[in-house]
Design brief:
Elements: E1 2-6, E2 9-14, H1 17-27, E3 34-39, H2 45-57, E4 60-65, H3 75-80, H4 85-95, E5 100-102, H5 106-110, H6 128-132, H7 136-151, E6 155-159, H8 163-175, E7 181-185, H9 205-210, H10 212-225, H11 230-242, E8 247-256, E9 272-280, E10 283-290
Parallel strand pairs: 2-5, 3-4, 3-6, 4-5, 6-7
Antiparallel strand pairs: 1-2, 8-9, 9-10
Helix pairs in contact: 7-8, 10-11
The chain binds pantoate.
Amino acid sequence: MFALNFNKTVMHIFYEKVALIDHLKSIGTTNFKIGFVPTMGALHQGHLSLMQKSLLENDSTVVSIFVNPTQFNNKEDLDKYPRTLEDDIRKISTLSDQIILFAPTVDDIYEGSILSHPFDFDGLENQMEGKFRPGHFDGVGTIVKRLFEIVTPTNAYFGEKDFQQLQIVKKMVSKSSLKVNVIGCPIYRESNQLAMSSRNERLTANEREEAAVIYKTLALAKEKFETNSAKEVSEWVIKTFEKNEHFTLEYFQIADEATLLPCVRKTQNKKYRAFIAVFINNIRLIDTISLN
Ligand code: PAF
């Protein structure tokens, strides 16, 4: 364990699970609430807001920073994923000196066998991200389950930008009978409404500005969905991106929030959500909006 001193705050940092587990045992008493924010680093305001919520609602907060190899279906994406540990530590230390940081190595987590466990998420894994990133959710399920077993959180916080991931983690928790409340938190947006993401780090200033079109399209799609079918709205979104020379649309889907199945005909009392994934210059960005 390391105690790091930044701007007079002292933060506990663990690089090995055994040391973290021992520390949590030493501070935990009956009814002690641990809040957990799992991340892959390159922290932004969205992550910090999850930490703030956890600090308010728990006795102790653990943040993990671990770029999980098994959830990347593309080696280039894994290699290029921003790794900014020092900067991340600095950002966390501006929030509180009470946060416990867990930044393990790949070997500490996977113990020589970098493989994911195959999960059955009742079909949630076959839509959208699951279709375009084969094996991605097995990797997410594997790492989140492993981290939950190490940290044993009472509450775990996830951003709604990755709404499909949030539903999958909830499913994994209920199917594995884990005792953790999975809490979804609102998307944090930049001033031009681009959803905050660690991948935004790779955009040029110009691309960042251009990327405002993603949320703008979602907001208009929401308006159109009031009077048009899901098919009509989807066709409009496809045309919008065909006309845009900077972006390539990977998918746009209007889906039932609970099952993530595409909306074929609108049904009363169902909650719908639009999901989008686009590429700009090989950088993949996703976003989502609730439609009703
Ligand atoms: O959303 C993320 O950053 C990752 O998928 C997570 C939940 C930390 C698992 O690696």
